[in-house]
Amino acid sequence: MSEQCTKQCGSCDKKECPYRKGEKDLKNDFAVELNKQSKIKRVIGVMSGKGGVGKSIVAAMLAVTMQRRGHRTAILDADLTGPSIPKIFGLKGKAGIVDSNIYPMKSRTGIEIISINLLMDNESDPIIWRGPLLANLVKQFWSDVVWGDVDFMFIDMPPGTGDIPLTIMQSFKIDGIIIVTTPQELVSMIVSKAINMAKEMNIPVLGIVENMSYFECPDCHKAFNVFGESKLEKISEEFNLKTLAKLPINPEFSSMCDKGTIEDFKDNWFNPVAELLEKA
After folding, report:
1. Strand partners of residue 153
2. Each residue of 184-215: pLDDT tens digit?
3. pTM above threshold 0.70
4. Among 27, 33, 72, 168, which lies 20 to 30 A Cα-Cα from 185?
């Protein structure tokens, strides 16, 4: 390796550099091959800097929106220690397993879903596993699940920038990341870590969704900033990102998640996001 090497391979024209070769081999070592019976056109990760911001609800509503628009849609629930996607869609029971293949369950409208809760005898049992075991299971959701033909897969990633998000970004072919945040100053600071992680992994950040952005009074229809003024525009400008949606505080969301009827939500907040994904 040259003494002048900056390790910035993207700006270097020396194709035979030993460092470049080593970097290429390292990436191949992490990559996981998609199940041979599956074909997935676009994979979108839904990520947050911390928990409790409504990331799973956003992932669910994105999938519902794309399914309504005629696309074959799937959700890979990678939040292994806090899996909520089956509950949101009202799914119970276990996914099918034949030989070494796992078959996802389908929601009422045909969205294919896999989650650790669909592989357990008791969905309330805790997942008390160390990082390597969790990482291996996430890889199996990619390599051992027969997804069939999917137009858009949404990955509900665990919050933060830890081992599982890193495994997903290194092992899967991710076409883009959508960041979910809330108006609080602390969350806005933390979300920058998720954005920077995606950029470090050379995965494009498609934009930001702000959840719990405001509360609209049902009587006067005035909007109230319950968690303070939104920082979304500031973050979007700082990182040159698109503001994809601002979602209100809506008790109906919680009710739908508890009942497993998220596919009944009527609002069109995610249509601009859908149009962005369809054009990409």
Report:
1. 43, 74
2. 766 667 888 999 999 999 999 999 999 988 88
3. yes
4. 168
